[in-house]
Amino acid sequence: MSEESGRRNLRMPNKDEVFAVVTERLGGNHVRLRCADGKERLGRIPGRMKYRTWINEDDVVICEPWSWQDEKANIEWRYTDQDADQLRREGHIQ
User: Fold this and answer.
1) Would you give the distance in Å from CA 67 to the centre of its chain?
2) What gap in Å lies between CA 3 and CA 24, rounded to an integer?
3) Average pLDDT by stretches of 10, the chain with 94 residues
4) Contact, 94 vs 19, CB < 8 A?
5) Domains parsed from the chain with CATH numbers
6) Can you tell me the distance from the alpha carbon of 25 to that of 59, in angstroms, rounded to the nearest whole number?
7) CA separation (Å) from 60 to 2, 21, 72, 86?
8) Is the Cβ–Cβ distance between 75 and 49 less than 8 Å?
């Protein structure tokens, strides 16, 4: 990556994943998500991310809605603030 351009190749959602913004921490490994498809979901932070990646309010994440219970989702990826700004500039998220 060149520092002049500031453009990085970021991980994008797969066909069954969506962008989401963390709106509230609920304690433990649960958060409230506002997803790009317009739905509010209960997000679960998986064990592989729980202690390695801190997730706070207003973080941009990729989540995978549960196929059997659409109002819940697993968090798959968290973007840094700089990466989230790049996604907003490129029009991927609001």
Assistant:
1) 18
2) 33
3) 60 90 92 93 89 88 92 94 91 80
4) no
5) 18-89 (2.40.50.140)
6) 11
7) 24, 5, 17, 11
8) yes
